[in-house]
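Subject: for your reference before the review

Hello V.,

The reviewers asked for a structural picture of the protein, and I figured it would be easier to keep everything in one thread rather than splitting it across files. Below is the amino acid sequence we used in the manuscript, unchanged from the supplementary table.
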Amino acid sequence: TITVPDGITLDATKATLAERAKEHSLTMRQTGVNQYMAVLFSGKNAPISGSAGKLLSVDLTASSAVEEGAELPLTISDVVMSGRDGTNLVNNYSAGNITISVSPDFAVVGN
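And here is what came back from the structure prediction:
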């Protein structure tokens, strides 16, 4: 489960897999207020390559009420990665913070 803080929205329809999971499919949906579930699946029972690194990317958007420079927690919980025999292979995972920055507002001024 990925839990985003109040004022942040996650677009589950734009979630993409990283190269490590290239032989997998991704399903992502909202399961509660600010909570989303991501499921990676391989119909061929293909392994995820490597033992560390990014598995998926998601687009996040901050509401105008969130102040620039704010650092907000992103929480990940209930992580399961099954081996071929169905055992959970996860022994550690971590989340992080979202830092709010404003996109630059470029203006072209003619002479």
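For the response letter, the relevant points are probably these. The beta strands are 2-3, 8-17, 25-32, 35-41, 56-62, 71-76, 96-99. The first strand starts at residue 2 and ends at 3.

Happy to draft the paragraph if you're swamped.

O.
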